[in-house]
Every structure is written in structure tokens, then in C-alpha cells.
Amino acid sequence: MRTLLIPFLLLPLTLAMSHASAAETPATPLLAISAQQANALGVASERLSHAGNGLASGLPAEVRIPNEQLRVVAAPLPGMVVAIDVATGQTVKQGQTLARLASPSLLAAERDFLQAAQSAHLAAQAARRDEQLFSEGIIAEARVQTTRANHEQAALALAARRAELQLAGVSDGALTALAQQRRLPSEMLISAPIAGIVLEQSVQPGQRVDAAAPLFRIGKLTPLWLEIETPAALASTLREGAAVSVPAVGARGKVINIGRQISAGSQTVTVRARLDAGGETLSPGQRVAADIDVPVRSDGFRVPQSALVRIGGDAFVFVAEGAGYRPLAIKIVGQAGDQVILQSARLTPQTRIAIKGVAALKSIWGSAAESASAAAGKAGEAK
């Protein structure tokens, strides 16, 4: 004859009724279970440990380049693109030639610069001569003041022409060579303002462009930003400096900014993080899943998911108490991987909860509740 184990185990189980006052009576019963029964049911318990930080995981995020690491390279003068020396996705160094632009406006600016340089040279000579004559008492002070003013005006005009060519991308070395050799190159070199990656090429060889027309967009990819779509309720608990990670690639960083604008559609807040390590394989515009460390109150505890039972919308753990276990309603406040962060005023670091055999305890609790309900019904009929 076969023996049924579970009925045998359930028969000795009783509900331990407290004799305390009504105000101190727990809301859930004590399930009296011996050590032998707990062992047979696979029930095991352990002490609680403080949570430290929780983890908000799987948040949608997009990889971005920090604004200060982006540069738009524009045409300094109107002209025609003669050649392009780089391609989208290529790594470039600061000062590397990106393209060459032929511009009649460059010839005019160079001619004006040479004329201004000649005028400044002649004005400087006249100023030196009149200063000498004035010191010897040969000319009047009014004349030397006039030559001084002419010299200053010529120097200002030369500086303005130099600045015009510098804005056009002509280097100081090229300006010096222009002044010495008196040669007027018709092409200007478009150079990279920073080291980085060519993100976008807006023109093709042979294309005519206006002044200030965008030619390239260059970005430095270290470090990167992560813009994380965070539920508004969660965002309100975060602080700058919170740890952030992208588990899929092992990238790590920290929160640098928490937005104040809530998206009307998704009811999320943009939380910006800087990735300081492990982001080499990420690309701008890439969508990823991010984790954020979430601070919890000091009375929060970390327990395995398997220690929880859910009934309706409530969550419970089974607290070891004397010769049994008592169901205790708790509040879940966060998640840390395969563990949850919970809180209850009745939990302490000395509290032991069931972490295995929880399904069996739930079954016993349900059976005990049915028995108590049936007994209450019979008592009501007897009255």
C-alpha cells in the first residue's frame, strides 16, 4: 500500500493562535511546522541582509555624442568643392585635410591682404622717418601725429584682412608665405578642427556651396553619453553620480544630469549618463538597455525572487517564528538582478525568512485558511 507524504505532513499542522490583545494580534496566522516536516518539504531559511542599492534594469536608452565633442565644418567662403580626402566613418586627426575648395572670393581676400600688408609696411616706414625728423626738430609735432595715425590705421586694416583669411581657414604659416612669396593660391584646404570620426559628409566633388554651408560633421566618441528614458517616479529618486551600466557590452558610467521635462506620451524623464569605460563598441544613435543603481532606504532588505509569494496584488514572505513560519506582507521597492528589495517595519537584520520550499508553505497557508473559513462557517450555523 502506497503512503501519501503530503497528507501525512499536513495533518499535524495547526494554526497557533496568539493570546495577546486584539491590537497586537498579527494579521496572518503562524504555520506550525516541525524541523522534520520542514526538511521533508524542502523548506530552508536564511537571515536578511541590508539592500544597499537596488537596480532599475532594462531601461531603454540611446547612445549620444556629448555636445562639446561635436563640430560642424562649414565652407568659409563661397566656391566649388574640388576634392574630398576623407569618407564617412573615417578617423581623422586634428588639422587633417578634409577637402579642397576653389573660391574666387579667396583670391579677392588674398589680394586685399597683400595690399593691406604693403600699405602697413609703407606707413611704418613713414612713421619711423617722421619720428626721427621730429626728434631732430626738423618737422612739427602735428606732422608726426598724422603719420602715427596713418600707421595705426594701416596696421588695423592689415589685422582685419588677416582675420578675414584666418576665418576662411588659412593658417598663420600660409599667411606668412603669402606675404613673403606674393603668390595667390586659388584653393583653400578645409581641415578637421578636432580629432574624431567623420559622422556625416554633406557635399560631393564638383558641388558649389555658399559661405557657411555645412560640409562635414565630426565627433569625438570618447566618452559617450547615454540618454535613458526613465519612469518619472523612478527619476525622482535618482541623484547625480548614480552608477549606470550597459550589461550587453560591459559599458559603465554615472548619471550626470536628470531632466525636469516629462514626456507627455510615455511619462518618462530623460536621465543623461556619461560612459567612462567599456563604450568602445557602442555607436551614436544605437538603442540599448541600461541599468541604473537606485538608492533605497536603510531599512530595505535584499531577498531572492524565489522567497516571494504573491496573492492578488500583495506580496508576502514567510518569516521563521518559533516552531513555524508566519506570512508577512511586504512592500517591494526595487530590484537588483534576480533579487528584489523589500521593506517592512517588522523586519530586522536578525529576521529569518524562507528562501526555499515557499510553494509548499503557500499551499499549507491556503489549506489552513480554508479550514479556518470552514470552521467559522460551522460556528455561525451553530449559533
Automatic annotation (TrEMBL):
This is Efflux RND transporter periplasmic adaptor subunit. GO terms for cellular component: membrane; outer membrane-bounded periplasmic space. GO terms for biological process: copper ion export; plasma membrane copper ion transport. Residues 223-289 form the CusB-like beta-barrel domain. Residues 1-22 form the signal peptide. Belongs to the membrane fusion protein (MFP) (TC 8.A.1) family. GO terms for molecular function: transition metal ion binding; transmembrane transporter activity. Residues 71-218 form the CzcB-like barrel-sandwich hybrid domain. Pfam families: Beta-barrel_RND_2 (PF25954), BSH_CzcB (PF25973). InterPro entries: Beta-barrel_RND_2 (IPR058792), BSH_CzcB-like (IPR058647), MFP_Cation_Efflux (IPR051909), RND_pump_MFP (IPR006143). It comes from the Bacteria. Keywords: Signal, Transport.
